[in-house]
């Protein structure tokens, strides 16, 4: 009796497997160019003018604190800028020049930090702001710079603007900002 039952179960399994003319699982097929993906890089340029009408004169802005849609997003440095030592003046612990210096900033929007536990990685996925196509409010809140004497100067900027991430953009240039302190 037991052998008959095993034979019937095997026959049913074999019969159900051989009738697979219709697929039960849908195959998802997509063109990679039509997917709304998050931008991987945001870049912008900025010139910072002091209260006296002069311009910040450093080769690198060490830490630029950025907010997107009123949430902290990243702290990044500027890229090194060519710097002329002519006409540089120290005023209020900030080096400035009469010549404007454009600081270029590139932000890795898809930056992922390595974590050691699943809970830390879950926090990253829940808290990470990705730049999907759409409009964003962008704030440059604070800039930290190092003087040659190793002192750190904090400059409150509070510059707010907006930018647009177009559909299927991997890199976004948000603009050239003239920041007045």
Q: Compute the average pLDDT.
A: 82
Structural class: mainly beta
Task: Estimate what percentage of residues fall within beta strands.
Answer: 35-45%
Could you give the count of β-strands?
10
Task: State the share of residues found in helices, binned by percent.
Answer: 10-25%
Main β-sheet description: 4 strands, antiparallel
The domain tally reads: 1
Strand order of the largest sheet: 4-3-8-9
CA radius of gyration is 28 Å
Number of helices: 2
- Taking the alpha carbons of the first and last residues, their distance comes to 91 Å
Low-confidence stretches: 19-34
Shape: elongated
Instruction: Report the order of strands and helices.
Output: HEEEEEEEHEEE
Overview of this structure, please?
By secondary structure, this protein is mainly beta. It has one domain. The chain contains two helices and ten strands, in the order αβββββββαβββ. The strands form three sheets. A four-stranded antiparallel beta sheet has the order 4-3-8-9, with no helix packed on it. Strands 7-1-10 form a three-stranded mixed beta sheet, with no helix packed on it. Strands 2-6-5 form a three-stranded antiparallel beta sheet, with no helix packed on it. It is elongated and about 100 Å long. The N and C termini lie far apart (91 Å). About 9% of the residues have low confidence.
Keywords:
181 residues; mainly beta; four-stranded antiparallel sheet; 10 strands; elongated
What's the layout of helices and strands?
Elements: H1 2-18, E1 41-49, E2 55-56, E3 63-68, E4 71-76, E5 88-91, E6 94-97, E7 103-108, H2 118-127, E8 134-146, E9 152-165, E10 171-180
Parallel strand pairs: 1-10
Antiparallel strand pairs: 1-7, 2-6, 3-4, 3-8, 5-6, 8-9
């Amino acid at each position: 009796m037991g052998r008959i039952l095993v034979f019937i179960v095997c026959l049913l399994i074999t019969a159900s497997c051989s009738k697979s003319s219709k697929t039960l699982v849908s195959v998802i097929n997509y063109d990679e160019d039509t997917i709304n993906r998050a931008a991987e890089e945001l870049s912008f340029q900025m010139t910072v003018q002091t209260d006296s009408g002069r311009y910040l004169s450093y080769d690198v802005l060490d830490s630029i604190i950025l907010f997107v849609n009123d949430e902290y997003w990243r702290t990044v440095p500027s890229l090194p800028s060519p710097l002329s030592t002519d006409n540089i003046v120290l005023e209020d612990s900030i080096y400035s020049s009469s010549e404007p210096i454009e600081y270029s900033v590139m932000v890795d929007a898809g930056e992922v930090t390595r974590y050691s536990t699943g809970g830390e990685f879950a926090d990253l996925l829940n808290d990470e702001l990705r730049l999907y196509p759409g409009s964003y409010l962008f704030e440059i809140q604070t800039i930290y710079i190092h003087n040659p004497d190793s002192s750190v100067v904090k400059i409150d900027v509070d510059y707010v603007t907006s930018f647009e991430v177009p559909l299927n953009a991997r890199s976004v240039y948000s603009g050239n900002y003239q920041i007045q302190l």
